[in-house]
Specification:
Strand content: 15-25%
Strand order of the largest sheet: 1-10-7-12-4-3-2
CATH superfamily: q2cbj1_9rhob like domain
Distance between the termini: 52 Å
Order of helices and strands: HHEHEEHHEEEEEHEEEEEHH
CATH class: Mainly Beta
CATH architecture: Sandwich
Structural class: alpha+beta
CATH topology: Jelly Rolls
Radius of gyration: 19 Å
Length: 314
């Protein structure tokens, strides 16, 4: 019988070594300049998170999970062999891999990720969910322009962070992400299908916001590097028409203390019924929303040395 790995709140493998001292944690800190860039622009990219061994382990297990008949599929919150609305394109998209394969479970406790998440969120974090995206060669589908929080309004306050980790080198040729700098100041916009018309969101924009798309930034990175973005930052990715595949895993976290905001009529409910439910008004916590980082316990007096978005905003 397949095992639900989400019942374990700690590492299952030795793939991600844990720091044993404040000095080792400090080796993973982002600079004040990096934190400031995130605060002002709404994103930060090119952050090294994985070594070759870790990329290889995650890549191998992702290939297992792309097969819809793989063991443990029932533990996914969502699973789409192809979420594209264009039958000529393919966009594999699934949520919940941390419950299915050990490398994806343990990457949540990667200290390089946890330190960056603490600094950019400005708080200790809990897991919201993870995601897998895979665009095959030559006919990989788009991820339409969107804001992450438009799909997450069943939580409050809006204290979320997304980490996108490449398992392949990503460029404009094989469908990398694009960001619209400073678009996290636009406010919450209408939600559009994530794998539909690439430019559908433009119908909801003011002329100045449409013009800002001229300044969009391609998020080109080496495999094992990550980008982080604000929950309101406008982002998306175009088709993959290259000879190179484009695979990624995402970790979505929120600040400890965020609560459920589910409407009684279910109008803002998640896209599938498999998400662990928390009654409206109650703290998002429990078995499937584990706390990933305890800054006081891990960093102690070293907290004052570490720049975060909150300390820079003061």
């Amino acid at each position: 019988m397949p095992e639900d790995l989400g019942k374990n709140h700690g590492r299952l493998t030795d793939l991600f070594a844990q720091p044993s001292s404040l000095e080792e944690w400090m080796d993973h800190t982002l600079s004040e300049e990096q934190v400031r860039h995130f605060h002002e622009k709404g994103y930060l990219h090119g952050v090294p998170l994985l070594n070759d061994e870790q990329v290889s382990a995650l890549g191998e297990q992702l290939e297992e999970m792309v097969d819809p008949n793989h063991e443990g599929r029932e533990f996914f919150y969502e699973y789409h062999s192809n979420e594209s609305e264009n039958p000529d394109n393919v966009l594999f998209h699934a949520l919940g891999a941390w419950r299915v394969r050990p490398a994806f479970h343990d990457v949540l406790w990667n200290p390089a990720f946890l330190m960056a998440a603490y600094q950019l969120l400005g708080a200790d974090c809990r897991l919201f969910h993870d995601q897998l995206f895979s665009k095959p060669t030559k006919h990989g589908g788009v991820v339409a322009w969107h804001q992450d929080y438009s799909y997450w309004t069943w939580t409050t306050p809006m204290s979320h962070l997304t980490c996108w980790i490449g398992l392949d080198d990503v460029s404009t040729e094989n469908g990398c992400m694009y960001y619209v700098p400073k678009s996290h100041h636009w406010g919450l916009l209408e939600k559009k299908p994530i794998a539909g018309d690439m430019d559908a969101i433009r119908e909801s924009l003011e002329p100045g916001q449409v013009a800002d798309f001229d300044n969009k930034v391609p998020v080109e990175m080496n495999k094992g590097e990550a980008s982080f973005h604000h929950p309101l930052l406008m982002h998306g990715s175009y088709e993959n028409r290259s000879e190179r595949r484009r695979r990624a895993t995402l970790i979505n976290v929120f600040a400890d203390g965020v609560k459920s905001n589910r409407d009684d009529d279910g109008s803002n409910a998640p896209g599938a019924d498999n998400y662990p439910k928390v009654p409206a008004g109650q703290k998002m916590s429990g078995q499937y929303y584990p706390r990933l980082f305890d800054s006081v316990g891990e960093l102690g007096e070293g907290l004052s040395q570490i720049p975060t978005v909150k300390t820079l905003a003061q």
